[in-house]
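Dear U.,

For the methods section draft, I wanted the exact inputs and outputs in one place so we can describe them consistently. I've listed the two proteins in the order they'll appear in the manuscript figures. Please don't edit the token lines directly; just add comments below if something needs changing.

First protein:
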Amino acid sequence: MDFEYRYTEDCLFKKVCPRKFKMGCDEHCTIQPEFYYLLNTSNIPKKYMKTVKLYPDSADEDSFFTLKDILEDIEVFVKEGRTLYLWSKYTGNAKTSFACKILKSYLSSVCIGNGFKDRAFFEYVPSFLLLAKDFKNEERDVHINALLHRDLVILDDIGSVKNTEYDITVLSDIINTRYSNGLATIYTSNVSPNDLFKNNLRMTDRICGDIVIEFKGRGRRKSTNIYKRKDSA
């Protein structure tokens, strides 16, 4: 997975960068390349790269406190190989956003002196399962290797998997390998733990056997029929 670094004054790490507070921000920074390497090799979608403030629905305040604890203790969460199953029967209520927030928190915590080591990986499960069937695609092996070995992985929308023998075999191998090797994994889903992979209870146990958090608030995506143009000048 290629990585091309270009210095930017609008660094996403700026708010928590110790160098900025002590020395200011300039093109001689050695931390920024490390952080952007981790960010760009994590496969995280661009939409989720920037940090945004997430506001809970009143029904999810307790869940947000738990997730805040995970954020603040992320290095221990990863070191201990913990798992988090973040689910809701509703779509658009920040499950993926919060999972990515946790991933970025981990990258921020390890980027200083990281030595350009791969650490985390985001995977949208439906797309991955299509890729996994394309044996001629070189990216296939890159993704599988990342999912098997990186410290922290997000498996996004795990509940949308069709229970075909091939899909279950591929996912089961990844999930069991990570579980056996004590590697931290975050799952997002719109399926309750009781309805997840009923024909493979062992896999369900691996996924939901640690921390399970339900978002009960409805989706917070808002649409509009108005488009405001920005000045071109």
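Second protein (the one for the lower panel):
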Amino acid sequence: MINIIILVGESASGKSTIEKSLVRNHGFHKIISYTSRPARSGEVDGIDYHFISKEKFEELQSKNFFSEVGNYRGWFYGSSVEDCKKDDVVAVLTPHGFRQMKKYGTLNIFSFYINIDRRDRMIKILERGDDIEECYRRSLSDVGQFDGLSDEVDFVINNDGYRWSADRIAEYIIQAIDIKNGGC
């Protein structure tokens, strides 16, 4: 049985949209990460993230509550071990988070690297309405993080030009897992 699908990819590769398709169309459950950052406008505790204080995060981390943790711009992020051990869950992670979770050992992980050409991703970021500085910052933050990742994941999905929709990629993911599990 599937424990967890992990989606990894650079900024604007479509990971979150694929995650939503797996939840909506295939009965998966999104792993809701914990974070020490404050909620942004429109975010809901328990739906977007579990918002907790930095002190509470550190306390939980000291009790091995998390299967992976990250620090971004001074805020902590992490996925609980308990959530990762449930069946049919999906998570969007950074390469660092994926590598941590992979080392955890007791999780049945199916990992997918969503690979899209840098130029296509930058255009998508700008089309979404992010300003040019944000586009540049996001692109720079990805540099080096994904080196060698294609050799570490179970599957690489090359989607240059966004030729496959998120729903089609979700279908592919389900088929790939079935084949890897010995199905047809």
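Candidate sentences for the figure legend, describing the second protein: Residues 166-180 form the longest helix (15 residues). The chain has seven helices and nine strands.

Thanks,
Y.
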